[in-house]
Design goal:
mainly alpha, Rossmann fold, globular
């Protein structure tokens, strides 16, 4: 899993990390934010307005929505990548999850044994959604993030790139997402990198995708 505080740090640092990890292993990248934004604009989506409202208010989208989107994406990847290497066999796969889980109920559901209807239909397996192996946590200060977000606001046209939404997102991250990081830290599953400065290139930690 990849985690960073909210802001363009995700775009600069994590894109580099994601590319580096994907280049050395057969991983399927699932970015929760990308899945949510795609669903938000999908014609006929039952979740579109709910996603849009939560993003605008700096809130976390309800767990059942994000989990459903991840379930569908994971089932699709399992069907497409079967046989690519030993990590993609017997209903198992390797996933790089970006920006999820964002709150404790999501973490608990994600690690619980859950029957994936899409995977059951395709592969006749019932197993954990995705038991976390390691979480890469890229950290920086709120001052750096605020500066980057306000800079991005000049060209992004994102309705959540304003000071009111930014401060709400910071508060939400501190209250709801940091407990997730602490949860995985208690299990020795967190590799922390940072704090990253406004001009620093991210470091890629040494880790094995076979853990």
């Amino acid at each position: 899993m990849l985690h960073a505080r909210p802001g363009p740090q995700l775009l600069s640092s994590l894109r580099f990390v994601r590319h580096a990890l994907l280049s050395v292993s057969v991983l399927s990248l699932l970015a929760a934010g990308d899945l949510l934004r795609a669903e938000q604009i999908r014609q006929g989506s039952e979740y579109g307005e709910l996603i849009r409202t939560n993003i605008r208010e700096g809130k976390i989208v309800p767990s059942y929505v994000t989990l459903k989107l991840l379930e569908i994406a994971m089932a699709k990847a399992l069907q497409e990548k079967v046989g690519e290497d030993d990590g993609w066999s017997n209903g198992r796969g390797r996933f790089l999850i970006d920006g999820f889980p964002r709150k404790m109920d999501q973490a608990e559901l994600f690690d619980d044994t859950v029957s994936l209807s899409q995977i059951l239909m395709a592969l006749s397996h019932s197993h954990k959604i995705c038991l976390s192996t390691v979480t890469l946590f890229y950290d920086t200060t709120e001052d750096v993030l605020k500066s980057r977000l306000l800079g991005r606001a000049k060209t992004s046209d994102r309705e959540d790139d304003n000071i009111e939404s930014i401060l709400k997102r910071f508060r939400t991250y501190k209250e709801e997402t940091m407990p997730v990081i602490e949860h995985y830290q208690s299990q020795n599953k967190v590799i922390k990198v940072g704090p990253i400065s406004s001009s620093q290139r991210p470091m890629l930690p040494q880790l094995s995708v076979d853990r």
